[in-house]
Amino acid sequence: MDEEKYTLLREQMLREQLEPRNIDDPRVLQAFRKVPRHLFIQEEHRHLAYRDHPLPIGEDQTISQPYIVALMTQFLELQGDENVLEIGTGSGYQTAVLAELTDHVYTVERIQKLSLQAQKVLHNLGYKNISFKTGNGAAGWSDKGPFNGILVTAAAAAGVPSPLIKQLSPGGRLVIPVGDKFLQELRLIIKEKTGIREQRLCDCRFVPLIEKISDLN
Ligand code: SAH
Prior knowledge:
By secondary structure, the chain is of the alpha/beta class. It has helices at 3-18, 26-34, 66-76, 93-101, 112-124, 162-166; strands spanning 55-58, 61-63, 83-87, 104-109, 130-134, 147-152, 168-179, 184-192, 195-204. The longest helix is centred in the first third of the chain and has 16 residues, at 3-18.
């Protein structure tokens, strides 16, 4: 498929999957119009890149469906000058969307092979405002914080990891799926002067956030 065809598919994705489902932040829509999602997807699945579902990215991991990436991003309410932390780099697609919308993105992935592959794609696309780390993202990235926004793209079975809340700036927003393999909900956590405000957003389904070796089973 040529690039022109992918551009048309991308426009169609906005029209059919994002705009009708209340993705209405013009900056978020513009980022989705721009980022070439197909380049983050292995060749064998590339023709499906703009479909309304998740896809495998190797190592038993998945890239979320476009709508979920958009929804999570929109809940961060980025204006352009934030320091953002992403846990679960995966393919790097969500990282690219965030890098379009803010000053700097720090992203942590536990599987080195995925991180290196994502670094290659993002480097080729010319992104210069992303820092990568391989390791356990449940610990956050304390020496680069605090963060105005934190986005976690794997589900935390044991609840919201406390280092992530700790590394949020005052007024900062954390979007995270919480739950086990079968039942998960997306949550928005806002650090307010008076304490932590938590909102349940919707049911969802993500790969697990691996916090301990025993989570690997
Ligand atoms: N944002 C990605 C989605 C990848 S799926 C994308 O757009 O493609 C979630 C990713 O989280 C997987 O790559 C998985 O390896 C990673 N992950 C799981 N547990 C993790 C942890 N504790 N720390 C960092 N990354 C983790």
